[in-house]
From TrEMBL:
Residues 12-32, 95-129 are annotated as: Disordered. It comes from Scytalopus superciliaris. It is found in: Mitochondrion intermembrane space. Residues 120-129 have a biased composition (Basic and acidic residues). This is MIA40 protein. One of its GO terms (biological process) is mitochondrial respiratory chain complex assembly.
């Protein structure tokens, strides 16, 4: 396949690293610019996006977010439904990376409440006999 496994030996770790660290470029136009760059473009490198622009659904996210950002509709983004739908469909394929908030969480807490009520009722019945 495409992956290659390399084992490091004790000797490998004893040799000093030859990696060079590059100092931050004070002229980097993306550094600490926020979500929108001075020219009005979207800063896809902004940490505020939480990596959404580079995940497996990055292209769908960029398409939907760009559409919303540049939307001139009366209800901003109302012309972007298809892009957001495509992004959502992609994210549903990767539930581990993009957890969905759904009824399951509510259901779990309701089940817990019901179970605790049943336990309390059973204790009362036992105590009254």
């Amino acid at each position: 396949g495409k992956d290659r496994i390399i084992f490091a030996t004790k000797e490998d770790h004893e040799t000093p690293s030859s990696a060079e660290l590059v100092a931050d470029d004070p002229d980097d136009p993306y550094e600490e610019q926020g979500l929108i760059l001075p020219n009005g473009d979207i800063n896809w490198n902004c940490p505020c996006l939480g990596g959404m622009a580079s995940g497996p659904c990055g292209e769908q996210f960029k398409s939907a977010f760009s559409c919303f950002h540049y939307s001139t509709e009366e209800i901003k983004g109302s012309d972007c439904v298809d892009q957001f739908r495509a992004m959502q469909e992609c994210m549903q394929k990767y539930p581990d990376l993009y957890p969905q908030e759904d009824e399951n969480e509510e259901k779990s807490s309701k089940d817990l409440e019901a179970t605790s009520e049943e336990v309390s009722a059973a204790k009362e019945e036992k105590g009254s006999s």
